[in-house]
Amino acid sequence: MQQKNFILLLVVLFVLGLVVGVLTGDITGNAMGDPSKSRYGHTSTRSPGQDSYAERYAYLKEIGSNPVTTIEIRPKSVLAGEYINITIDPGVDGARKEVLIYKINEAGYGTRKKGDAGGTGTSGGAGGSITNFCGNQLLSGYKCFSTGTVRYRTDSIWNGLYEVRVFDLHIRDYVKESFTVTWQPKGIA
């Protein structure tokens, strides 16, 4: 008989604890609270417990200055065989470390340049990709979280519109920036 009473007492205490927990919001995360207020006390149209983008990624503020990866190319127009500087600022979720170079045709479609520039974040030669634009800074496997600049030499036979592409892990697509290369026959200035 005492064992039945003890089990009944445990069940009653458990159910009472669940009811109190749900009413105070401690167990289910503000289940009975005001849905228009976030857990930080300010009004919001989000669901209870749903963080804003800025709150969720606040710890990455010093890593990337943009929500999405940006690419800057200097200068935007060069002669074939000259260098360009490619600066990549990864977004909050990072970017893949590989930088791809495409030749853009008249229809606006790109053809990837073959070869490997062998760049490691500081230099690169004529080829179709830079294997790691951020060097060893804040690198997590294939992801890069730190801003990097690569000095890249265009091929001596390139001519036309080219595009730099980096895969952004937040939008899950390539971010693109174009530059122009002008070919001149040797001996003509």
Q: Topology, please?
A:
Elements: H1 2-24, H2 53-56, E1 70-74, E2 77-79, E3 83-89, E4 95-104, E5 110-112, E6 129-130, E7 139-140, E8 143-144, E9 148-153, E10 160-168, E11 173-182
Parallel strand pairs: 2-11
Antiparallel strand pairs: 1-3, 3-9, 4-5, 4-6, 4-8, 4-10, 7-8, 10-11
Description:
By secondary structure, the chain is α+β, with helices and mostly antiparallel strands. It folds into 2 domains: 2-50, no CATH class; 70-182, Sandwich (Immunoglobulin-like). Helix content is 14%, strand content 31%. It is built from 2 helices and 11 strands; from the N terminus they run ααβββββββββββ. The strands form 2 sheets. Strands 2, 4, 5, 6, 7, 8, 10 and 11 form an 8-stranded mixed β-sheet that branches. It has a 3-stranded antiparallel β-sheet with strand order 1-3-9, with no helix packed on it. The chain is rod-shaped, with a radius of gyration of 27 Å.
Strand content: 25-35%
CATH level 4 superfamily of the largest domain: Macroglobulin (MG2) domain
Q: H/E order of the elements?
A: HHEEEEEEEEEEE
Total count of domains: 2
Question: Descriptors for this entry?
Answer:
single chain; 189 residues; alpha+beta; 8-stranded mixed β-sheet; 3-stranded antiparallel β-sheet; 14% helix
